[in-house]
Amino acid sequence: MNDLIPSPSVRATEGRSTHAVLSARSVVYSYAQAPALKGISMELHRGEILAITGPSGSGKSTLMLCLAGILAPDAGDVTYDGRQISAESEAQRSRLRRTEFGVLFQFGQLVPELTAVENVALPLLLAGRKRRAAVTAATNWLDRFGVADLALSRPPEMSGGQGQRVAAARAMVTEPAVLFADEPTGALDALSGEQVMTQMVRVAREAGTSVVVITHDAKVAAYGDREIIVCDGMLESSRS
Amino acid sequence: MTAALSTGHAPAARAAAGSGGPSSVELLRLAASGGRSDRLRISLTAAASALATVVLLAGAAVAFISEGDGPYGPDVLDQPGLRPGVMIAMLMLCVPILVFVGLCTRVGAPARDRRLAMFRMAGATPAETTRIAAYETGLAAFIGSALGTAIFFVGRTLLDSTKPGEFTTELSDGARSVTEGLVRSLPTDASIPVLAVLALILLISGGSVAMSTIALRKVRISPFGVTRNTTAKPLRKTSALMFLGGTVGLMVLGLAAQTAQGMILPVALGAFVLFVLAVVGLLTGSAAISSAVGHRLAPRVGRPDLLIAARRMIAAPYAASRATASVLLAVMIGAAIQGVRANFLAGADSTDTFYADTFRLLDMVLIVAIVLSAANMLVTSAEAIVERRRTLAALQASGTPRPVLARAIMMETLVPLVPSVLLAGTSGMLAARAFFGSSVERNVFIETDGAQQFAVVGVPVPWERLAVLCGATIAISIAITAVSLVLLGRSTRVAEMRAAV
Question: Could you say which of A70, A111, A171 has the minimum Cβ distance to residue B494?
């Protein structure tokens, strides 16, 4: 039952820079009157794979949403590559996500009407790339995730694991500096989860992409170079 | 009983659970136990049913005007020969309202269907879940219809008054004379039989239940969730054949009817059948157009908004067709009215405003019908956004600008609408010209001897009015779809990504 135990090559940490590409300082966020984050500070290094774990409702997903610029914190700063994104407008943060970040959710992120290759090409088309070039790049990324044969299939025709690998290819197609993955294996069986994690981590390492993985699964967290544990909206501990 | 008690309560509970299922009262209670969107659906269904009842009763009041009733100020009510026109106008107004009732029964339905799936998990049978939905709709429509009846009769009592005015009477030689006296503005004195009122209430309630049940046939509710049956590919050839067959048939029948005397009933029946054929062909053809345009665009376009719209047109070709059904119907009837108007005005004396006034009334009804039809689009568009909220939220979260999503939603509704509106307008106009002719006899005075003679004058095609009809319909549809995009902001919030499947 070592389904999700990563291989040594996947777990390799060499070549990782100690320079922080993304950092949070005293981040506070509340949903209406319910505080979700109570002043968290943390850093993500270039090329690092960081697992953020914690029990359900601990605030780990909210932390990821703040780091990705999807939510603007109520207080505190989020800085990406020297740029204080928490102070930027929604439009500026959207552009940043489109060009610098990739986001992978547990489910529901693929457009059901588009084919796999069109789903993956979508961020490139949004960036103004010509269709032919976007489709070629998308096909290449599908191949890297081992799902090139599904290029013309639509999401409802795929298994959960296949869909998640297509979604991972879409998150990586812009070659983002940071990939955010919120419970990427949460809806998958153990074998599919292992395939998704192995390929995602391998591809991210090849591309030099930093990864933030949100999970409550210790096996998924084991793919990270470092793990931080969030509990009740605060950073409980950090271990490498 | 002793045995059951001695072994605990489980056998008794099982026995109770197995005794024939829940009562109708219990199913009704479950039907009414929903959340905010369920209350909105029930309220809208009731309100739309009330509105439909008021309009249908107003039409019935005109139909039941008897010899002793009146006189009425407006000629369209006072002249028995013109009353069918008023009834047709009221029926025309009812079409979008009834479509609206049907659409209201689907507001928030995805959430309702998920609730029904939970009932299935708790042991409800598929028939019981269908009955819960049917009870909910039927009850709302019945209450709305009863309320509409009350509003109609209270309003009728309040509006019943006479005032001095003129009314037209037709003399035995066909000439008209204007008489002064006390007149009513509305047929508030015409009595509608109780049986007709009851039949109307039952018709609206039963119709709503039928529409709700038919809509549920597309949805498979299992204990594990809700799946929608994929819609069959639109039948392009069949749709084209039905539309062309209906339109050409109407033209042929119209031309034949000009020479046939005393065949009113067969001609009317034939026209109705051919009209329905053309409408069904147009509506299914609209889905075929949507699919064909989507297939043509999807492999070629590089714009993300157009790509999303094109793929949606292929995957759900009937979505836009459903949204625009009553709009297309209104345009088709509206174009026919404009054709008939051109014919009557070409044959009338330019100083006689009788026909112009009558058609002005029909134009007003047409405008109301188009606005109501466009309101139906609002419900459908809003529903489509809410249904896709998780995908839209995820796209927004991963950096897709909201305007791209907004344009995609606009395009998927409007791209198939434009050719369909043009086809509807053409079909209505051709049918009207075939039935009423492209030339008409007109009284003219010959200047030299002052004698009155008939001259044959050509009936111009009312291009301007057709352009206004089609253009205004498209403009109203764009505006209404744009209004539905207000929901996009709410539906692309991060919280929506965690919404239940």
Answer: A70
